[in-house]
User: Which sequence fits this backbone?
């Protein structure tokens, strides 16, 4: 009876959808749908919210996958109702009845729906919390399906509205993917840390990795899997190659000095998998700092006198520091387990790092001389790469689930970006990503400590 509508605000990358309809239930459905066609496996993500109090408590919003646009088509929906009821609903057969698996979580705003063959997984959360999962098996919708966002008012006389932020349609890697030999596409994103609102700036079919935010707030510096360094202009959204001389096999462990004048690089040589160099931030002739490797750079000291890096020596990886112009390296950790990701606090008092010495990868910190090593996180995730905000108040870090080897930080996984007070304490999720290796290996806070930059991943959409 009432036609729905769709608006898109490119300035904040937000969809607003209105829809009517009696219900999505029984043998036929009525709703408004913003859709596209898609094949194979996929991951659908959004942060959704109703506008206004609404009329019927069973009004619905969420993600939907359908075989056809016929009102009685087989389908799967991840849906949140007006009264908070959250469920994975599905119709397996044409004009068949709808079944429902209810989530234990009520009233989430983060909604993710993933397809793996004939398996569908709904993951939901209130922003700041980790996902709660519900899944259904053996729902065959065919390979070529309609996917999209929907609104149903649950009342034929009413239009309801909802907003959808951080909308992502992700094509994950194929099952026979070979790490470090095969890559999928990348997107440069920034995010307001307080609100979680993300902005997708640029997408490429290649592997872009590890953005550094320059101190003048004008550029993001990143690498690609092919070894070159790039400068991304935050006004024009265009990239240019940074001249690093003959050091052109750079990896994603690169860092800016606190004064913004120097860029530290980690690059492969004929002898070593990675050694450390420095180069002027605008580009120029690089200077080799560490004579041996592997050495993976992660930070400058605030006074510009030292570099701190992860060094593989005698089959053990520990934290080292070295004078910025080269010299004798100083070993700061000696545990037999992997220590990685060292980064100075802005006041220079502490070095934050991650270590697997307790069985899972967790965050730690120590005094600048390696003393007073103390654990900061104690959860079931594998937590990597603590990055300290320029104002010295917060840590952003990457959390892998506990389905990985704690010694590894692989590409192309479900991961969280989490935020924690500098002194430790309760963490909250600020981004729900498909990424991992290369997403946020390096310090990427904006100079005002309000935003971060990172990479997310997806194979090319048709």
Assistant:
């Amino acid at each position: 009876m009432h036609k729905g509508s769709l608006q898109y605000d490119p300035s904040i990358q937000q969809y607003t959808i209105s829809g009517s309809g009696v219900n999505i239930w029984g043998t036929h459905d009525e709703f408004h749908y913003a859709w596209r066609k898609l094949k194979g496996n996929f991951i659908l993500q959004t942060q959704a919210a109703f506008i206004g109090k609404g009329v019927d408590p069973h009004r619905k919003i969420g993600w939907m996958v359908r075989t056809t646009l016929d009102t009685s088509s087989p389908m799967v929906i991840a849906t949140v109702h007006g009264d908070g009821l959250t469920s994975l609903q599905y119709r397996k057969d044409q004009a068949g009845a709808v079944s429902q698996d209810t989530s234990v979580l009520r009233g989430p705003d983060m909604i993710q729906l993933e397809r793996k063959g004939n398996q569908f997984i709904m993951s939901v959360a209130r922003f700041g919390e980790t996902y709660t999962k519900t899944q259904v098996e053996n729902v065959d919708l065919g390979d070529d399906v309609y996917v999209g966002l929907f609104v149903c008012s649950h009342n034929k006389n009413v239009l309801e509205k909802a907003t959808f932020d951080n909308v992502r349609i992700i094509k994950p890697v194929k099952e026979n993917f070979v790490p470090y030999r095969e890559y999928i596409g990348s997107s440069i994103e920034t995010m307001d840390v307080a609100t979680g609102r993300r902005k997708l700036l640029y997408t490429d079919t290649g592997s872009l990795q590890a953005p550094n935010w320059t101190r003048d707030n004008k550029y993001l510096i990143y690498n690609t899997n092919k070894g070159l360094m790039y400068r991304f202009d935050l006004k024009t959204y265009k990239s240019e190659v940074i001249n690093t001389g003959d050091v052109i096999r750079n990896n994603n462990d690169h860092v800016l000095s606190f004064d913004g004048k120097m860029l530290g690089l980690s690059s492969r040589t004929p002898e070593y998998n990675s050694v450390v160099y420095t180069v002027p931030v605008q580009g120029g002739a690089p200077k080799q700092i560490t004579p041996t490797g592997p050495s993976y750079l992660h930070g400058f000291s605030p006074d510009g006198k030292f570099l701190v890096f992860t060094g593989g020596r005698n089959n053990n990886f520990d934290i080292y520091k070295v004078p910025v112009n080269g010299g004798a390296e100083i070993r700061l950790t000696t545990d037999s387990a992997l220590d990685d990701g060292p980064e100075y606090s802005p006041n220079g008092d502490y070095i934050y790092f991650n270590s697997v010495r307790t069985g899972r990868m967790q965050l730690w910190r120590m005094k600048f001389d390696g003393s007073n090593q103390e654990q900061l996180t104690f959860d079931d995730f594998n937590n990597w790469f603590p990055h300290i905000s320029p104002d010295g108040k917060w840590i952003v870090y990457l959390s892998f689930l506990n389905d990985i080897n704690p010694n590894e930080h692989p590409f192309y996984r479900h991961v969280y970006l989490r935020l924690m007070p500098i002194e430790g304490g309760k963490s909250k999720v600020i981004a729900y990503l498909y990424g991992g290796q290369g997403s946020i290996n390096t310090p990427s806070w904006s100079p005002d400590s309000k935003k971060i930059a990172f990479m997310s991943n997806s194979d090319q959409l048709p």
Remarks:
- The chain has no helices and 38 strands.
- The mean pLDDT is 97.
- The two ends are 34 Å apart (CA to CA).
- The first strand starts at residue 5 and ends at 9.
